[in-house]
Amino acid sequence: MEIRDLTPEDLDDVLDLRKRSFGPLSADDRERWRKAVLPALGEGRYLGAFDGTRLAAAARLRRFTQWWHGKPQPMAGVAGVTVNPEDRGLGVGTTIMRAVVNRAAELGDAVSALFPATTAIYRGVGYEHAGAQYNVRLPAESLRGIRPAAPVKLRRMGPGDAAELMAVLHRAHGAARSSGAISWDEDTWNLWLANEDDFLYLADDGYAVYRWKGDAMEVENIVAASPETLRALWSLVGSASTIAREVVASVAPDDPVLWLLRERTKEQVQQVRWMFRVLDVATAVARRGFPSHVTCEAVVTVDDPIRGGGTWRLDISGGSGAATPVEQPGVTLSVNGFSALYAGIPTRTLRLAGLMTGHDGYDQALDAAFAAKPYMLDYF
User: Fold this and answer.
1) Across the chain, what does the average pLDDT equal?
2) Can you tell me the distance from the alpha carbon of 133 to that of 220, in angstroms, rounded to the nearest whole number?
3) Residue 217: HSE in the Cβ half-sphere, 13 Å Cα cutoff
4) What class is the 146-261 domain?
């Protein structure tokens, strides 16, 4: 099985592969997909596994920015992992995923994430469950009482507003010390902002993306950095409550809108789980944000059969971290375990799950340094 970069000439075969894996796309969706993937071809971010000239599997690395404790870094989002029916169960998926891990690192990404259709294949190449997309279902009338606290200037967005929207995201997630949240790259945002069926609004410190879905309102993104903008954006959605029966919204697990509701009793929340992997320990630690009040050190050994493991001393202080190679005993984690720790999974959980062993003197320091409630608003 040969792994190589896909080219524009391969896209018809990729579409056939996607159809056999996910179902057919409409003509409009096929055209939108082609526009979205063309930049990835020129950047070495779309790989194929070939049996001779026949395409057996494919996987795409999407360019994202991801925040960890409010600090942004590049992240390789793995999507479109597809294997032909006749090639499943033969290790082809693992083969292409090992290539994806190495390619992401070669492109300079220190972390990667994906939404799994199944856990085993991705866990086998070092990914571990880390966070979720939280989709809450609310009666539309529950939003009716949210009213702007002060005038907020809102305008409609469209293609060409991606750079301004991304700047808003950087300010909002930095101020919120968000973990796990992502932003599409500018080209992709401009594609999404051209969707005529979406309602797109931008403020100086927030934005909203929502749409009708049947007789419900679907909120894809509402991000706000001030109480005034938060209320203004959610009041837009609430204004449809005389027609819409319910609202389905992607929210943070502690999203402030939930504390604006007049009543809360039973809530339906669907968690769409995502997995996470550290590709380069030293770079990932240097790029991550940490609580400014935490000062500590710990020695960790990370076992990574694909990227190569090692032992590092982690020094955390002033909101920043560094990982220095050392030769001394410490706590031992699989790369799955270290990836989960990085995402805020407690050391006690990791030990009970068999992902962490050895010296326990660093556990409290590691829990304090890597504490997080990771989430994503966007599915990919």
Assistant:
1) 97
2) 11
3) 28
4) alpha beta
Query: Into which CATH architecture does domain 280-370 fall?
Result: 2-Layer Sandwich (3.30)
| Spatial distance between the Cα atoms of 47 and 83, rounded to a whole number of angstroms | 12
- CA–CA separation, 83 vs 81, rounded Å? 7
Mean pLDDT of the 8-22 span? 96
Which ranges of 140-185 does DSSP label H, i.e. alpha helix?
162-176
Q: What is the pTM of this model?
A: 0.96
How far apart, in whole angstroms, are the C-alpha atoms of residue 214 and residue 199? Answer: 15
DSSP 3-state helix, strand, coil percentages of the chain (rounded to 5)? 35, 35, 35
- What is the DSSP code (8-state) at residue 110? S
Best CATH choice for the domain 2-109 from the list 3.40.50.10860, 3.30.450.20, 1.10.287.130, 3.40.630.30: 3.40.630.30
- Compute φ and ψ for 165, nearest 5 degrees: -60, -45
Q: How far apart are CA 371 and CA 68, in angstroms?
A: 10
Quote the pLDDT of residue 149: 85
Same fold, 2-109 and 280-370: no
Mean pLDDT of 49-53: 97
Q: Which H or E run includes 323?
A: strand 320-325
